[in-house]
């Protein structure tokens, strides 16, 4: 038997259902109460889903970037897109339906993809005018445009569910695209802009000195920042370097890597300038960004050393000569000799031949040499000194580096009047 009841002024749907709906002989249906319960369910589901997915995305970005600021910047377009999408749907009177809830995950995923592409392109190339950044920008635009066309077609569908899905998805992706192209560029440009820190009289190797070095690599790839911190924690170079290099205005850094040695010197000597040579393009780019206007790093493979007009007062080669054979080592020294000023300094640090099973760093390096197919050329202190003397240098001092590291510092000078006689 079907009965239609008209609710009175004292009618309370939830209490009425709890009292009668449990009876097997009675089945109740209240359209208004059903709509209210369905709306509450959709709202709680949406809130819970957004919280879980948003938290997961934020944690993954934080682990990937290892930087809270970059994580917040990457999430900014996604938050912008969600707020604007919900606001737009409210303004046009379109409720958030089941297809919209389901596709909100797609919108969130695609929006964070666009953000990651932009952030990583700026983080790697450090220049919005770089051609590769332009290619990434174009790729993001084409990917989002094709997706917008696909979901935009659904807005013309006759079925309300398909039309709702198309409207929600199209609006969300469109706002994500706007957020990526409008919000991210000024934020990233400001974030990766070079900042000149104030000159301070600090002690080499002090906590303040090391902190300023770390700041030079802020917001770069997590692997680079972790490498810098590892070097600072375990490498005595940051204090020992200043035993040999006094205040000088022009320094050439051979195989500079990420420019750690150069940054270390520039923080202590405010008038110094560094010219670096690094085989890897990306490392040279990072070193240039870390040193700013006081550093110039070129990509070149040893023994090729580009000629420069001005002579240098000091040349530095840290942990690299074992990668050069005897002929290349002599060729590098001869080229450096011609680019150093009268009695210019040459500072080397090199691993010496030891029982390789007793020293894990050399053991690790040997594995790397086997992978790359290179053959290391470890030399004793006497062998290095002999090559230096033959190349027109005189030995000033030889000292060990650190305790038990099996490395040594060798400071040499160009022999007086050698350049003129040669």
Question: What is the CATH T-level topology of the largest domain?
Answer: Rossmann fold
- What is the percentage of strand-forming residues? 5-15%
Largest sheet: 7 strands, mixed
Helix content: 55-70%
Q: Structural class of the helix and strand makeup?
A: alpha/beta
Number of helical segments with 4 or more residues:
16
Low-confidence stretches: none
Strand arrangement in the largest pleated sheet: 3-2-1-4-5-7-6
Number of strands: 7
Large-scale geometry: elongated
Q: How many independent structural domains? A: 2
Radius of gyration: 32 Å
The CATH superfamily title of the largest domain: Vaccinia Virus protein VP39
**N-to-C span:** 116 Å
SSE order: HHHHHHHHHHEHEHEEHEHHEEH
Let me know the average pLDDT: 84
Can you tell me about this structure?
By secondary structure, the chain is α/β, with parallel strands linked by helices. It has two domains: 14-191, Up-down Bundle (Multidrug efflux transporter AcrB transmembrane fold), CATH 1.20.1640; 207-421, Vaccinia Virus protein VP39 (Rossmann fold). It has 16 helices and seven strands. The chain has helices at 13-20, 31-65, 68-91, 98-125, 131-154, 160-182, 184-191, 207-215, 222-234, 237-244, 260-268, 281-291, 326-337, 360-372, 381-390, 418-421; strands at residues 250-254, 273-278, 295-299, 312-318, 340-351, 393-401, 407-414. Strands 3-2-1-4-5-7-6 form a seven-stranded mixed β-sheet, sandwiched between helices. Helix 2 packs parallel to helix 4 (98-125) and helix 4 packs antiparallel against helix 5 (131-154). The longest helix has 35 residues, at 31-65. The radius of gyration is 32 Å and the shape is elongated.
